[in-house]
Write a structure and sequence with these properties.
Layout (H helix, E strand, L loop, with lengths): L2 H4 L1 H7 L3 H19 L1 H18 L36 H37 L1 H16 L2 H12 L3 H28 L2 H8 L4 H13 L1 H23 L11 H7 L9 H27 L5
Helix pairs in contact: 4-5, 4-13, 5-6, 5-8, 5-11, 6-8, 7-8, 8-10, 8-11, 9-10, 11-12, 11-13, 12-13
C-alpha cells in the first residue's frame, strides 16, 4: 500500500482549488489596508465624487445651475438647498456640481501642458547633456525663480481671459518643475547597464532615448503630475477668483467664491462652501500623490 493511499485526506487537501483559499485572503488584505489608511480611502472617495460631478452632473442634481427662484434668494443651507442659494435664488450646490466640469477641465489641461512640455525639455536636455543642457537648465532656473501665480498672471494677461487660457497659463508655470524632475531621472537612467549595453550594441540614440531611457524615467514625473493636479486646482481657482476665468454666469469654483465676497456678513455659505470643496479636492489629490510617491503606486 502506497503513502498516497494511506493519506487520502492529505492528498485531497493539497490539490484544493487555490482560488477559493486566496479570495478571502485578498479581501481581508484590502479591508485591513482600508482600516490602516483611512485618510487615503477618504481622499479617493472625495476625488471620485468630484470626478462624478464633472462627468455626470445630472446624476447628482436635477436643478438648473443658471436659473434661480427670486423668492428663495440668500436662503441658508438646509434640507431643500444643501448649500443654500445665492443672491439670485440659484441653488449653490447645483452650481458647485456643474462648476466641477469647468474647473477640472482647466486643471487637466494645465497638468497636461506642464507634463508634456516639461517632460520633453527634461528628457532632451538630460540625454544630450553638455553645453546644451547647461543653457536649457539656466532658462529653467529663471522660470523657477518666478512665483508660479505671478508667472500665470503674466501669461494669462498676454493670452486673454477664458478657461483654456487660464489652464495654459497654469501649465506654463509648472513646466520648470517637470523639466527638473525629468532631467534628474534621465541622468540616473543613462548610467544603467542596459542603456550602456544598447549604446555598445550600436542602437541609435533616438531609439535608446525612447525605448530604454524614457520608460525608466517616467515614474517620478507621473507622481509629480498627481501632486501638480492638486496645485493646479488651487491655481486655476485663484485665477478664476481674480476674474480671469470663464465669464459669468459660468459656475467656476473660484468665481463662485468671488461672487460671495459681498455677502460675507449675511450669507457666509456663498464663499465658505465652494471654498471647502476646493480645499477638499486639493487635499485629496495631495494625499493620493503622497501615497504614490511613498509606495511607488502600490496601495497595499
Amino acid at each position: 500500500m502506497t503513502a498516497v493511499e494511506l493519506l487520502p485526506d492529505t492528498a485531497t487537501s493539497v490539490v484544493a482549488d487555490p482560488r477559493g483559499s486566496h479570495g478571502p485572503v485578498r479581501r481581508g488584505g484590502a479591508l485591513r489596508a482600508a482600516v490602516r489608511r483611512p485618510g487615503l480611502v477618504l481622499a479617493v472617495l472625495v476625488l471620485l465624487l468630484v470626478l462624478g460631478w464633472a462627468f455626470f452632473p445630472e446624476w447628482f442634481t436635477s436643478r438648473d445651475p443658471f436659473t434661480g427662484v427670486p423668492r428663495d434668494k440668500l436662503t441658508a443651507p438646509g434640507a431643500e438647498y444643501w448649500f443654500g442659494t445665492d443672491h439670485l435664488g440659484r441653488d449653490l450646490y447645483t452650481r458647485v456640481v456643474y462648476g466641477a466640469a469647468l474647473s477640472l477641465k482647466a486643471t487637466a489641461i494645465a497638468v497636461a501642458v506642464g507634463f508634456v512640455a516639461g517632460t520633453l525639455i527634461g528628457l532632451v536636455s538630460g540625454f544630450v547633456g553638455g553645453r546644451f543642457d547647461g543653457v536649457v537648465m539656466r532658462l529653467v532656473d529663471v522660470l523657477l525663480s518666478i512665483p508660479g501665480l505671478l508667472l500665470s498672471l503674466a501669461v494669462v494677461t498676454a493670452l486673454g481671459f477664458g478657461t483654456v487660457n487660464v489652464a495654459i497659463a497654469v501649465g506654463v508655470a509648472s513646466v520648470a518643475s517637470f523639466a527638473r524632475v525629468m532631467r534628474a531621472d534621465v541622468f540616473r537612467a543613462r548610467t544603467e547597464v542596459f542603456v550602456e549595453a544598447a549604446t555598445v550594441s550600436g542602437v541609435s540614440r533616438p531609439e535608446i532615448l525612447l525605448r530604454h531611457v524614457l520608460p525608466h524615467a517616467l515614474g517620478s514625473v507621473l507622481v509629480l503630475a498627481a501632486l501638480e493636479f492638486g496645485g493646479a486646482i488651487l491655481a486655476v481657482s485663484a485665477l478664476s477668483f481674480l476674474g480671469f476665468g470663464a465669464p459669468p454666469p459660468q459656475p467656476e469654483w473660484g468665481a463662485l467664491v468671488s461672487e460671495g465676497r459681498n455677502y460675507l456678513a449675511s450669507a457666509w455659505w456663498l464663499t465658505t462652501l465652494p471654498g471647502f470643496v476646493v480645499a477638499a479636492s486639493v487635499l485629496a489629490a495631495n494625499r493620493i500623490s503622497r501615497a504614490l510617491d511613498r509606495d511607488g503606486g502600490d496601495f497595499r
